[in-house]
Design brief:
Strand order of the largest sheet: 2-1-3-4-5
Number of helices: 5
Distance between the termini: 46 Å
Oligomer: single chain
Radius of gyration: 15 Å
Strand content: 15-25%
Shape: globular
Helix content: 40-55%
Structural class: alpha/beta
C-alpha cells in the first residue's frame, strides 16, 4: 500500500464516523511531515451548521495544531471532491496538495464543476491527485444515499 492509499484509508475511517451519525460519509485527514495532524468528518446535520464540512473541521484543527493559518507544507486527503466553500478554504490556507477519493460531478470544485484549486488568477494553486481508492469512497457514498432514499420512501408510505 502506498502513502496515498494509507492516508486515504484514514480519511475513509473518518467518513465512517459521519455515516454512523447518519451524515453524508465524507472524511478528511491532513498530513504534515509524514504524520496526521488533523482529522475531520461531515457533521452538518449533527451541528445544524452548513460550515461543518470535513475539510473545514480538519483545516481548523490543523491550524490550531501548527499555530498558523498557513498550511503550506501539508497535504489533505479527502474522500469526496471538495465543494466551492471547502475548495476556497483550501486555497486560502495555502494547502500544498489535495488527494481526492471520489469526484463529485454535481458540486465538486477541484475539476468537476469548477477547479478552484488550480485557478491561475489566484495567488496560490494546489497540487491535485484524484481517484485514490475511488471505488471504496464512491461505494460508501452511494450506499448512504440509497439507504436515505429507502428510508424516506418508508416514511412517505
Amino acid at each position: 500500500m502506498n502513502q496515498e492509499e494509507k492516508y486515504m484509508r484514514e480519511a475513509i475511517r473518518q467518513a465512517k464516523k459521519a455515516y454512523a451519525l447518519e451524515e453524508a460519509p465524507i472524511g478528511c485527514v491532513i498530513v504534515r511531515e509524514g504524520r496526521i495532524i488533523a482529522r475531520g468528518y461531515n457533521r452538518r446535520n449533527t451541528e445544524g451548521n452548513a460550515l461543518a464540512h470535513a475539510e473545514l473541521s480538519a483545516i481548523k484543527k490543523a491550524s490550531k495544531k501548527t499555530g498558523d493559518w498557513r498550511l503550506e507544507d501539508c497535504t489533505m486527503y479527502v474522500t469526496l471532491e471538495p465543494c466551492q466553500m471547502c475548495a476556497g478554504a483550501i486555497v486560502q490556507c495555502r494547502m500544498k496538495k489535495v488527494v481526492i477519493g471520489s469526484m463529485n460531478p454535481k458540486a465538486g470544485c477541484a475539476g468537476s464543476v469548477l477547479n478552484l484549486l488550480q485557478m491561475p488568477q489566484f495567488n496560490h494553486q494546489v497540487e491535485l491527485v484524484t481517484g485514490v481508492l475511488e471505488e471504496e469512497c464512491s461505494q460508501m457514498l452511494s450506499a448512504f444515499f440509497r439507504e436515505l432514499r429507502e428510508k424516506k420512501k418508508r416514511q412517505d408510505a
